[in-house]
What we know:
The complex is a heterodimer. Chain A is mainly β. Chain A has strands at residues 5-7, 10-13, 19-24, 31-38, 42-50, 53-57, 64-68, 74-78, 87-94, 102-103, 107-111. In chain A, strands 2, 4, 5, 6, 9, 10 and 11 form a 7-stranded mixed beta sheet that branches. In chain A, strands 1-3-8-7 form a 4-stranded antiparallel beta sheet, with no helix packed on it. In chain A, strand 4 (31-38) and strand 5 (42-50) form a beta hairpin. Chain A starts with a strand and ends with a strand. By secondary structure, chain B is an all-beta fold. Chain B has strands spanning 3-5, 10-14, 19-21, 24-26, 32-38, 44-50, 56-58, 64-68, 73-78, 87-94, 101-102, 106-111. In chain B, strand 8 (64-68) and strand 9 form a beta hairpin. Chain A binds chain B through residues 4, 6, 31, 33, 35, 42-43, 45, 48, 50, 55-56, 58, 90, 92, 98, 100-106, 108, and chain B through 32, 34, 36, 41-46, 49, 51, 90, 97-105.
Amino acid sequence: KAGVTQTPRYLIKTRGQQVTLSCSPISGHRSVSWYQQTPGQGLQFLFEYFSETQRNKGNFPGRFSGRQFSNSRSEMNVSTLELGDSALYLCASRAGGNDGYTFGSGTRLTVV
Amino acid sequence: AQSVAQPEDQVNVAEGNPLTVKCTYSVSGNPYLFWYVQYPNRGLQFLLKYITGDNLVKGSYGFEAEFNKSQTSFHLKKPSALVSDSALYFCAVNGNTDKLIFGTGTRLQVFP
Lengths: 112, 112
């Protein structure tokens, strides 16, 4: 059974650009969450989607957005990139309820 | 508000010795508690979870954790450490929302 797949693995962008990251959850998992990991702030929750609906949102500016498609794949978008957006972005999926979250390997975004 | 504390930035232990990585939590209602491990340039790997039931939870790679409600703790333990256990360990809680709140992480260093 394939795990959570995140693409691309690495990305370098320039300040002011926008970026789209992709996450394919484990087959059958309908919940997808996104987290940002930085050395200074640690792991912070961005948002969670279930059946194409955003159920939860973390304390990030509106430049951070996401969506989920009918096949449960999810994308997150960051517009007007800032240097501080450089981070490892992790996607996690779960079947629901009390199941543990399965994380992907992440997308390492570097903003220069 | 939900929170997780991992009081030790780093834990050093000799191979073959028992290890403990500490975690305390604060959450309203019944906590769902998780431990994850992260190896360099990788995502998070699920180790174990506590939802309800027996206070001693057994997980992957010989790890276990003990839920203590009165002390609001969920310490990670392993009877005999391996050098390959060296990694970054995260405790997380999921209270009455669907988002995981992570601790700041504890770096485990196992020396030969």
